[in-house]
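Dear support,

I submitted the protein below through the web form. The confirmation email said the job was done, but the results page showed an empty box. After a refresh the structure appeared. I'm attaching both so you can tell me whether what I see now is the final result or a partial one.
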Amino acid sequence: MREARRLAGQLQRFGWQLLAAATSLVIAFSAVRGIAGGYEPVSDNSLIELRAGDVFTRNHPLLGTLSSASISTGIDVNHLGPLLFDVVAIPFRLFGRSAGIPVAIALLNIAVVWLVGFVTSRVGGATAAVSAQAITALMVWTMGSELLYDPWQPNVLFLPFWLLLCCVWAVVAGRVSLLPLTVGVASFVMQTHLSYLFIAPIMVAFAVVSILWERRASSTRALDDLRRPALLSIGVFVVLWSQILIEQFFGSGRGNLTRLTLAGTGGGQDTGFESVRTGIPLALRMMSAVVALPPWWGRPGYDDSIPGSTWIEGPNGLALQTPGLRTLGVSLGALAVVVAVVAVAWRQMRCIENLEVVAAFRTLTVASLVAFATLVITPIDILGISPHKVRWIWVIGIFLTYALLLAALAAVPKLWCRRGVNGLAGLSVVALVLTLPTYVSQSGPLIFREATASITNVRSQLDDYFERSDAPRSVFFDPHGIGFGEPYTQPIMTQLIHDGVDLAVEDPSLARQLGRNRVATPDEIVTLPLVYVRAGAEAVALREGVERIAFHAGDTSPYSINDVRDRAVAVFLVRNDG
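What the results page shows now:
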């Protein structure tokens, strides 16, 4: 009996560490299985591979990839920074694309898991840390096995933004030593995807203002504990934002920050399509779909809580169709229930003077208000509503669940709290076991899994071709000719660069993806050998004077983003012998 109690005490003492270790093993297992199954970065993921390979070369990236926000703004803008490329660079160099990218992203997610445990334990002890690990395990289940090592930006930020909210909560609750970590995580999140352009810095600003407000009447000595975290935070900011500032002030042409300012103030070119703001009614319906209505933020809702939308021609012009979203009345009713529950829990925590959980509700409130305001002003372009652009709504719903969970555990007697924590630990184990089977979310480049074999085959043939002595060392690449959103062109460009080929492109938007050193001069457009890609029947057809340097036999139907299958793919080369 005494031994059982001792073991129970040990488990309680190291509970969050054990759960973090279990979650880490599940992430690692998923990545290893993906590598063993022949992981291949396709579509946008191969651009991350390309730019990670450019780190510390003459094409070193100073910005992130080109943003789809360019469609609605009429001006090419990139995601703010290259920190994701920096994270991937070393594992990619050590292990190559098929292993390096999954290893890098898996390690990133594992680091987040442990940091969540560390941060929450600093605020609320073992109860908060075990509860946070239970939530993290459920998030891992929500993502499914294949997203746990997927580098696509909206997916890769799912766990880091959860860490950011935990860090902000910790600082608001008075753990000022965590401010440098908060600035670092916010920098990574904000730089990696533009959808976090507002919410990440505002949450950090909220944390800083909260610190200053709490100490407004304090003596100078009471403010001394802020000096070291503040100086470290400034140092973290300078280091992590230096590449962006170099591009802005010392790069050629308009800097990306200038472009973003022009885009936000309507200074872009006419795109031929008049984007509309999401607006309050639709924003309420979208917010409610994730935080207030089933299936909430669980796995069934990751792809479908905010479904894709389409534009249709109506009597008054184009109208946005949003099938799957609940009506405004139902959405408002559900949100009202959530607000009421939060208000009651918040009041209860104030009555018992649980300042840590009160700080969690303050953090939740600010995050929700910023998220809603961002939703309202988010433009809807010709592609319609894109859930990946508002993935932070899911994480805010998760933090809502966490805050309510902490309030419930704080409100009950210690015995029931202990039993509740043990139950959460058990729930974590169940969620992790359910994550082990292969699950492919239909989010991002994973929708192109049927094209993986063809891309692997073509890349292998290109590798062999460019080992030949007569293979050109510089080419002009034409990326057009297959269709919108196709998965082939980007990995083929990446392979050419991997094989040591100097790639030049004419398209200015593509040049912002690949780096300015790869912009073709007028002379290169005329004199360099031309390389292009075709899929379907055009991949099979041979042309006089055109060399097919790589070919994968497959289905010959025309490519469609709504019909991804194992198609015929070919890479063609036109030599300029003149």
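Response: this is the final, complete result; the empty box was a page-load delay. The mean pLDDT is 91.
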